[in-house]
Amino acid sequence: MVAIILLILLIAAVLSQLSKSKKKAWIGMKTTRLLLLGYVGLLILLAGASLLLPMNSSSIKMMSEEEVEQSMKLQDQVMNEAFRGTFEEENGLDVVEKWTFPLTGDELGITPINDYSVQVFIEKSLDIGEEIQITHYVGKTIVNGMDLTEKRGEVQIEMQGNDLEIKNPSHVSVELAEISNGFPFQQFSAEKVEWFSSGFYGNKGMDVLYIKAPKGLKIEGQALYVN
Amino acid sequence: MYLTESKVRDVIFKQYRYKLQAYFGVFTSLMFIQVLGMLFSFSGTSSIGGGSDTFSYDVRTYSGSLVAIFTLIWAFSNGISLTTKQHRYDDFHFVTTRHVSNYANGLFLATASVIAAITGLLTTYVLRLLVTQVLRTPSIAVDQLSVIDACKGLVGFFLYILLFASVGYFIGMIAQTNKIIAFLLPVLLIGVISIQAYLGGEGTLLVDIGRFYVLEASFLLFTVKSVITSVLFFLGACMLGNRLEVGV
User: Fold this and answer.
1) Any idea where the domains of chain A sit in the sequence?
2) Which residues 159-188 of chain A have a CB within 8 Å of chain B?
3) For residue range B219-245, what is the model confidence (pLDDT) as tens digits?
């Protein structure tokens, strides 16, 4: 707050100094005219270059507040249903990867490594032979409307004998520049008005592993049974 | 009956042309303020960061809003500076009345606002160029303006600048009319905001006024609101100006 007041005072002081009448002008009129022409010319040149040069843009999709809300609702709905014992394979969450591992015995241990919080749901089915099918679902990770889901690392799955190891994804650091024209230019466009808006809106997507295993398989580890 | 009878319109335009030349210095301050705004914006106007063991993010926003705000401060100060005794006396180099002088000031402020709006729009593209080509951070444009949107934005920005210039002109004229009111105005403003904050809410007087314009998504309604407000402030300033005595 103090910095803002100081800044405003500084600007006011500079402006009052600069906008004195012609008698006290610190540079001549001809020079001022040349300066202004040069300034406008340079701005036009650079603005043109900005439109022509590639933007070094990322492939991130922007989502509206409604879309973010919908994706949060979807994640909550899928999780709630799963906790109640129902898990639909076509549930609307993004599928990251699918694995199929053959089984060598009638027991399976599930070991989470590095304490990464992945929710594991298991469905035992008569249709499955001597193998397990794993599908990795993920909820959307959104920061201020930017869909960063694809930027996240993937959960690593390894089968060591009869042990299924779930490992942390490697750390991913995302650095992004969000460019906006500013409020007078946003105000009448289809985009949101940034001023006085509710500000940050986002969601951290959950990782879900859905394992289909044969009916007679004995499973040890932290997991919930569905269907 | 005079040998040379000049029409009011001619005198207004003559004075307007004179002001454009004499007060050209305001554009130097415009350049300064916009470059300053760009420099501040270049380090990012806001940033969001966070993360967990496996994922972290740092999103920095580069917005043209700061340049716009600086330009509005310039317009406000520009409006005030036109009402100073020194500037008002300059007008009496011509055969003039207070009305003529006010109209010429209005035209000058409108012209300065047009130039400021155009350069303001251009600076947003320059900022984009600097961020994408100099910083080379992967970028995402949150508002891809179409030509129509850019035109609307340009006119909207011009109306904002004109509004601030009119308010500045009005306040400047109040200050010239009565020094006590000039002192009391900021005291009153800060007082109301402080009382609002003291009564449990936030000091949102300026925010509430701002909402009236900034949250108006309809271009037509915004135009009506800002034009009416600008005209009212300008007419108010003219009425106050007419009450000024020659020595004041």
Assistant:
1) 2-52, 61-170+181-225
2) 168-188
3) 999 999 999 999 999 999 988 887 765
